[in-house]
Amino acid sequence: MGRAALPVEKPFALPAAIPVWPASDGGFAKGSIDLGGLEVRQVTTFAKVWSTTKGGHGGVGATFFKPWPVPDGFSVLGHYAQPNNRPLFGHVLVARDASGTGALLAPPLGYTLVWSSPDGAAHFWLPTPPEGYKAVGAVVTASSAKPSPDEVRCVRADFTDACEADEEPVWRSDKDGFSAAALTPAVRGVDVLGVHVGTFVAGISATPPAASASTLACLRNNSASYTAGMPDLAQVKAVLAAYAPQVYVHPDEPYLPSSVAWFFENGALLYRKGGETPTPVAADGSNLPQGADNDGEYWLDLPADGDRREKVRRGDLASATAYVQAKSMLGGTATDLVVWLFFPFNGPARAKVGLVTVPLGEIGEHVGDWEHLTLRVSNFSGELLRVYFSQHSAGAWVDAPGLEYADGNRPAAYASLHGHALYPRAGLVLQGDTRFGVVGIRNDCARGSRLDTGAAGRSEVVAAEYLGAGVVAEPAWLGFMRQWGPREEYDVGRVINRVARILPRSAREQLAGLVNKLLVGGGALGPKKHGNWRNDEKKA
């Protein structure tokens, strides 16, 4: 009986064809990007070099590839590695010296053998670059002979940037400490020029990938117009229409999202420290203090009137709007569309202790809850690469093959009950140290009411700084840097002793520690005060 086919043996394709994007004088989705004399293209087809079905993600091993075919005149910079438990989904850059100098690329002086597989079918090498150059990826061969100098090219050092190895390796050998990990720019942000190449680094226990990564590099975009490959405003809107998420709230969710305007129009109040009377917020937020910092001088709150307060707490799905920030990432080779969602109120948390669900009283409640999804799109093609799901103070990336699609190429997202953390699938996710299933904060997700962020009037581009001043008019409320709700103070120990008194003392102490770590804090800050406004997303 033959072996079942592995997911990696079939290339991934989005459920629907990638649209034809609006025409533009810019460089978005035109197949190549100029890094200032070094032209790069993205290769998504590969020739297999070696595969193992042991260990790794899902216990089914990993496969190692070389980019193939390579466009005429372009050179390979390194090979690609992927776990076997998902469809093939690689994006590796190849390069051509377009500077006219012929000096930006050079063959390696040789190769250092890192590891050979026990069966002798695979050999992993790190290129030795000439002085003034950097290698940007490992090489794997089926032969024990050193690779040809023409196998890869090294890159002149001023066209490279520091890189790091992913914490979770693509694959590791259980016997001798060998492992391979994907490389990524060490620093990532809107103004950072490091370019993701798609290659990997190999190492052994004495010199693990994290250490070996310091000998390799990512590329650097040296173009004076490093955002030339970014989409213009019409293209941003077209990309959003193609990939706009379908967001599902839990069927039992009492605290729904709303638009910011609805929140203001229905009585949101601006408080000032030491002030006696709060100020109603204008519908467009034009009377909110701008700039400065979260100094505690101002904050927002729900209406003071009891009935109106309860109405606003419950939100208004009919008005809910996705507020979109478009930003450059990975040295202008990718576009991040950050889809911000506003919930007027974040509900109380619940914990799972063993088999018991414990409501945590008022813990977790706060006014003003901003959540977000980030769509990362290739500037070479406009293809959706991955989506980030914010989950309280951090979150998780999910590559395109791991997403659930609700309508064509539009990913699904599930907002957890009360807390609105976003997840790629329905079900229960426990947050915290749940290795033994003892204590975790519940995040229950299920398909209830839907916010279709791609429907007419359901999304608004509120920021795209790279397009220049005045192209996108930022709403006044985006410049409010203080808290969107009053600071909440809890006596955690007292609350837990009250709501979980049936639990053993050790379980209550463990639960208190988890609550203090994950849930204690003030009201939510607006989008511009989140670290991802200018930097890459924070992984949990």
Describe the structure.
The chain is mainly beta and 540 residues long. 9% of the residues lie in helices and 34% in strands. The chain has a six-stranded mixed sheet with strand order 31-30-29-26-25-38, with helices on one face. Strands 21, 32, 33, 34 and 37 form a five-stranded mixed sheet that branches. Strands 1-2-7-5 form a four-stranded antiparallel sheet, with no helix packed on it. Helix 5 (492-499) packs across helix 6 (505-518). The longest helix has 14 residues, at 505-518. It is globular and about 80 Å long. The model has no long low-confidence stretch (mean pLDDT 93).
Write a brief structural summary.
With 540 residues, the protein is mainly beta. It is built from six helices and 38 strands.
